[in-house]
Specification:
By secondary structure, chain A is mainly beta. Chain A has a single domain, classed as monomeric porin ompg (Porin), CATH 2.40.160.40. Chain A is built from one helix and twelve strands, in the order H-E-E-E-E-E-E-E-E-E-E-E-E. Chain A has a twelve-stranded antiparallel β-barrel with strand order 1-2-3-4-5-6-7-8-9-10-11-12. The mean pLDDT of chain A is about 85. Chain B has a single domain, classed as Metallo-dependent phosphatases (Purple Acid Phosphatase, chain A, domain 2, 4-Layer Sandwich), CATH 3.60.21.10. In chain B, strand 6, helix 5 and strand 7 form a beta-alpha-beta unit. The chains are: A mainly beta, B alpha/beta. Chains A and B meet through strand 6 and strand 8 of A and helix 1, helix 8 and strand 12 of B.
């Protein structure tokens, strides 16, 4: 919890001194699946220049952190992402991965399309096992956004998700709606559903869904 | 596209249902009271006109007489009727029965996906199931697989297994005992154990007085050691896997047997006395992602404190690799 509070404070104290554009956001909601004891989730993120960082905590154990460094221009962007998820306090384990994603944006007046393609390599570990398990998964994403000031709605499908990073191939389908309060402040609602085993089986088996609401501040 | 939308809406509707419809239907911990394999013996007969099986009590009880090695056959992913759907598939029903009948085994373990499309009234499937069970006095421990969920008839897996094991209320999560051994049959057919099942498991292990414990389940838990598609797709959620490993380590569970992967023949040695053995499919498919068909003889050696898993080619009976891991004894 201390990390969750310190994280945005760090941004709010240091970044106003910087001329570099930045943003910070915080959100809360629920993430339901068959394994979680408590579905509540809390997340914060910050972005400065080309670097963004996310931190999400699921009540009852489970901390997801990610650093995303992007480069390129507005149309063609590359991301190098390092993500890590740990489980505590009793089930000591987690996974860590690094990925590369290339995305292209196509923007019109009220409509934009973005696709991304990449690959993620990760390793899962447990205090109780000396066997690290490796994973190599493709990253794919496709989103379509509709903007009519002050509302922007984005539909997306992707392998993997910013707020629910999986160490394996896991498809997501979601909707992000953002409403501007003014030039710097906005609120948003993000919801998604994810399911495993869909490609290998005709019966959809393990799935999870989430909905969260948050606030974002952008310096400019 | 239409199918995807319908599936998505179905998931959204189903998501309002409590976490697991099966575990919520079971009100008490199913692992506390064990089924004693030394006290059960049945003859199973298929009643093909009804598409069911019937079990008749038999007096041919097979008791544990203090033998230092407990040996039993194990197989997985028979996939009866898959040869009708996919090319390059050979199903070895008769060969598996011969393997089970080759010795007087007290029980056998079937890791699921025995039927390809969940059509439980299929004649070949009922014949296989009854023959396999009869080879071990009715003591066939049958873990539910994801293909058993493809129920296209009104006969559910639970009802089928209640016919196979009269008197057992549920069929998916059961603890069996044989002499000093506890066998926990788990349900991860939906690629997750679910929080409730793991809570029940831990409660039962705390009270379990058996010195030797093993787990059996269908879907592979560990995945990603082999350079094949297990790297991207298979394996359960790492958080749940970590919880399972903690339970295995803290309560002396020596091995988890799994299937599902088909290529199999992988021993994941988490420690000297804790491992997962992923069995290959018992059927053959001509594919680099699958196997030529394997069955196994498992020997729990209580003197040497080791578990030996010997593979045999299903088609020919030729011996293959032998996998060895430690057998942990929990002292009370």
């Amino acid at each position: 919890m201390k990390k969750l509070i310190a994280f945005p404070l760090l941004f709010l104290v240091i970044l106003p001194l910087s001329a570099v554009p930045f943003s910070v956001s915080a959100a809360t909601g629920i993430r339901f699946d068959k394994t979680s004891r408590t579905p509540a989730v809390f997340s914060v993120s910050g972005e400065v220049g080309n670097l963004s960082a996310d931190l999400q905590y699921q009540a009852g154990g489970g901390l997801l952190t990610a650093l995303d460094y992007r480069f390129g221009d507005k149309q063609n962007t590359s991301h190098i992402i390092s993500a890590s998820s740990t489980f505590f306090p009793e089930d000591k384990g987690g996974w860590t991965g690094i990925s590369y994603l290339f995305s292209q944006n196509f923007i019109w007046d009220f409509f934009s399309i973005r696709y991304g393609i990449g690959v993620q390599g990760s390793v899962s570990w447990s205090h109780y096992s000396r066997v690290p398990l490796w994973s190599l998964a493709p990253l794919l994403s496709l989103s379509a956004a509709f903007s009519l000031d002050p509302i922007r709605i984005t539909f997306y499908v992707s392998i993997n998700h910013r707020w629910d990073r999986s160490w394996r191939f896991r498809p997501y389908c979601g909707l992000l709606a953002e409403g501007k309060i003014n030039e710097n402040n906005a609120v948003f609602v993000d919801s998604y559903i994810t399911f495993a085993e869909m490609l290998m089986d005709r019966v959809v088996t393990d799935y999870a869904w989430s909905i969260r609401a948050g606030y974002i501040y952008r310096s400019r | 596209m239409k199918k995807a939308v319908i599936t998505l809406l179905a998931i959204l509707a189903v998501s309002c249902v409590p976490s697991s419809s099966i575990s919520s239907a079971i009100s008490e911990n199913p692992f506390i009271e064990a089924v004693d394999l030394e006290k059960t013996s049945f003859i199973i007969q298929p009643v093909l006109s009804d598409g069911v099986l019937k079990a008749y009590p038999d007096n041919n009880i097979r008791s544990y007489h203090g033998e230092s090695v407990i040996a039993f056959p194990l197989f997985s992913d028979v996939h009866i009727t898959r040869d009708l759907e996919d090319s390059g598939v050979t199903v070895y029903s008769d060969e598996i029965i011969s393997f089970l009948e080759s010795n007087d085994y007290p029980f056998a373990i079937n890791l699921g996906d025995t039927i390809d499309q969940g059509t439980f009234d299929n004649e070949e499937y009922l014949d296989f199931l009854s023959s396999a069970a009869n080879a071990v006095n009715g003591n066939l421990i049958y873990a539910i697989g994801n293909h058993e969920l493809h129920d296209e008839t009104s006969l559910s897996f639970d009802r089928l297994l209640s016919l196979l094991h009269p008197g057992q209320e549920n069929s998916r999560m059961v603890r069996y005992t044989y002499g000093p051994l506890s066998i926990y049959k788990l349900d991860d057919s939906r690629r997750t154990f679910g929080r409730k099942q793991l809570v029940w498991l831990e409660e039962a292990l705390k009270q379990d007085t058996s010195p030797y414990r093993i787990f059996v389940a269908h879907e592979i838990v560990a995945a990603g050691w082999m350079p094949d598609h297990s790297l991207a797709v298979f394996g359960i959620d790492p958080a749940e896997a970590a919880k399972l490993y903690r339970i295995m380590a803290e309560y002396g569970v020596s091995v988890l047997f799994t299937g599902h992967h088909h290529k199999g023949n992988i021993l994941y040695r988490h420690s000297d006395y804790m491992a997962e053995f992923n069995a290959a499919a018992a059927h053959k498919r001509d594919s680099v992602f699958e196997s030529s068909g394997w069955v196994y003889l498992v020997e729990l050696d209580t003197i040497e404190k080791e578990i030996r898993i010997t593979s045999y080619a299903t088609a020919t009976g030729e011996e293959g690799s032998i996998f060895v891991t430690g057998l942990r004894e929990v002292l009370q």
